[in-house]
Fold these 3 entries.
Entry 1:
Amino acid sequence: MKINSVIFLLMVLFVAKNAASQETYNDCSTAIEVCPNTTFSANNIGANVTFCPGCEDDFNFCFTTQNTIWFTFTTNGTGGDVTVNFSNLVFSTNPGQDSELQALILEAPTPCNSASYAQVGNCISNGAAPFALNAVGLPANTTYYIVVDGDNTGAGITAAAECSFDLTISGTGVSRPTPGLTLNQSSNSICLNEVVFFEAILNDCPDSTSFNWYINGNLVAVSDTNVYSTSELQNGDILTVENSCYSNCIEIVDATSTPFNVYSFNVDAGPDQTVLPGTTVSIGGITSAPDYNWTPAYLFSNPSLLNTLVEITEPITLTLTATENGCTLSDQITINISNELFIPNMFSPNGDNVNEFWIIKGIEAFPDNTVRIYDRWGQEVFQSTGYSVTKAWDGRLSSGTITEGVFYYVLHLNSGSEEILKGSITVIR
């Protein structure tokens, strides 16, 4: 029982090893589609046959099958003559192994069912050197199979031939125009953020599909039309368009632009700000361009000044637009209004966990603020940058002692305005 199990295991491993070495086109159902103007390298090393009535290898036209491999082709829309050339034959040279190939073209109305097979053209049973299969007057749009097999006949032959080879197919029955794709574009030298239009033109491309558009090899769009536009190009970017032609023996065609020269220059309207209503805000724009202006212009006494003051009564977005070398770029700054800034005038750090800190409501909207607190003699007792709930004053003096009385604060919001808020604080114990 043990010995039988070992033998069975060895047989399984042997079959698995041989199966792993077989090419995918060992079976009719996975035949390689061969296309005109293309050379295919193939081999029947490790191939086998499928024997049963009506199965794919159950035929004997001019040879008996030993280790078949399968190819397929479809004639074009007009049909005609077909030639299949075999070249660069390199045979395995194991002892007792044959060194001749066998091959033919089959018509199979029922795919991979030998009962429906009919031989088309000549049949080769002893191909030891380059040879050809020829079929004349094939009808249009018809699928055929090419079967290649190793011979296993002759004195002293104990193993079927195994061979690697190149295969090409040609003739009026499969020839077709070579498809092409060209790319038209509006310009190659553009401004940053400029909209550029592209047109892809297909030639001799039946059964085309969607257009795939790539920037620097990254897919950015898929379109059913041949027109594409973008404003996202950067200096040095390359655009490529791709499509496929023919439903059988698909051919991919593409076209690529030259690198784009994208002109740009610096335009910076400054950081966004949050201010109190009615605040006069300092605006500081930056640009290298000679021509520039702010909008909306009615807010500015002179919209052509980069650095200016603007009184803000409501949230607004200001735009700095600049022009250089025929290119126009812009940048924006948004000024928000804070209506919730509340500065209390008293608090009681007496340890009862109520109103223990001087908390300014809404101060988080002004993260760059600075706070200074002075006693009645003008001595600074507290200072903070970025004052917040976590940095709130607890009534201690700079010496660390808790006191009481009246103190005075100076608050700089530092949000772009020059406004300084001042007032008194009463500390109650």
Entry 2:
Amino acid sequence: MKITRQEVEHVARLARLELTEQEADTFTGQLDAILAYVDTLKELNTDGIIPTAHAVPMENAFREDEVQPSIGVENALANAPARAESFFRVPKVIE
């Protein structure tokens, strides 16, 4: 067994989780199975395999930044619930 019930209870305490007896037993078995599978994966020969962040090639979906004319103060503030001159008026949050 890779992980003990005491370790599961310790991690649950750190995470401020209250586990029942049944949950502690269940999680101990599940975490042990996960760690055993990780050990199985460690046995794979990964020589010559390039680490990747994505399984498929990715391209940037963002457009290039281009300078464009502004929408203007009047259009920007057209639906503002409150305004002060050319600014949005917001409730005071600092006293």
Entry 3:
Amino acid sequence: MSIPLSYSLRARLLFFLLAAIAVGALVQGAIAYRSTLAQADDIFDSLLQRTALSLGAGDGLLSAGPSRGDGAVSPAADDLIIQIWSPDGVRVFNSRSRRPLPDQIVLGFSDARIEGSTYRVYSLATPFQVIQVAQDMAVRTRMARALALRTIAPIAAAAPLLMFVIWCVVSWSLRPVKRARAQVAARQPEDLSPVNEDGLPDEIRPLIAELNLLLARIQSAFALQKQFVGDAAHELRSPLAALRLQLQALQRAPDAEARKQAEQRLAAGIDRATRLVEQLLSMARHESGVAREPLVAVDLSEVLRQTLSETLPAANAKSISLEQSGAGHAWVRGDPEALRLLARNLLDNAVKYTPDGGRVHLRLEPSDLGCAMLVDDSGPGIAPAERERVFDRFYRAEGNTQHGSGLGLAIARSIAERHGARITLHDAPWGAGLRVRVDFPAHPRADVARAAPAGAN
């Protein structure tokens, strides 16, 4: 298993920028050096040519006879050698040089090897004389190199200065990032306030903005969790106190009949407390940010049939008629367990609030959104003014005499929202009673053909 290597953005920027400056300075210096050498060579050749032309001007300026430059011979005299020949091949002039040029004359530019040194020679023929001007290549090379070094000196001096400027600019530009990192590192675990975005570069600002959004979501989730825990503790206090009273009544029962009645009340209280705990756990699971099962193709008709069979005993105990009609199949994309919990909460509420001998009707039908699940009951219904509030946790409609926790519809809405569905309350079609309508988005048939029906064994 390979371990990803961490790196510093500042160090990486400085390394590549400084390396680019160094390489660029070297390349530019090398190009400037070679270019200066070539230009200097052209200049020296031009000087040789101009010297020869100047000596060749006039009519046999140095034709008086063989002569030699006067004065002591010095090494500086070897830098430039001048020889002049008469038309008949007699050398009439030789500069003060201990190194005579070869007698063989090549007109124009040529190189000559004299006593271990290389000379650049320019020969010019006129009607009256032949002029040779030569220069030691070592001397002109030294002069050209000195000129080239003076040319690249500014580049060599500017490169370190530019590196220093780049170092300062990168360090200064990354100071806001360092400041943001320090803000996050200094935070306490409970501090979920936004990170200051002032002065951040455009490349870092979106990251900090997303971090602030994440902190806001975490803060909201913590607030909801805190509220939920407080509400749950408050709601559990009453059933636990009731269980204690029922247990005391059972212990003080004077006869078998009173004991039997106390046992039944205690069992009913335990069932209500169990149901409340189950609903609290369901609410916590569906409102938390934990990983959930992926959504798959689910047949709502099959979900309703399974839920109907689970609710049938409670309906039979109250002589309530349970019916299911509508489409034979209604495919949606969802979590099968969550959809069964949604349907069971709606059916449990319908059976609980429907009086003995009433009816509960389930129906699946097409809707503008895709398909709709309808749960109709013949109970007391809910006033229009309270139909939105009953979706709040632990809220119970006024005048409600049934035991309950006020979590069923809250859980149903949470599950519906997760599936992109819309849940609304209406009057039952037969007048008295309540209709709960859940509109689900349509499921593409192409996906349905590849998916197995939910609940199939």
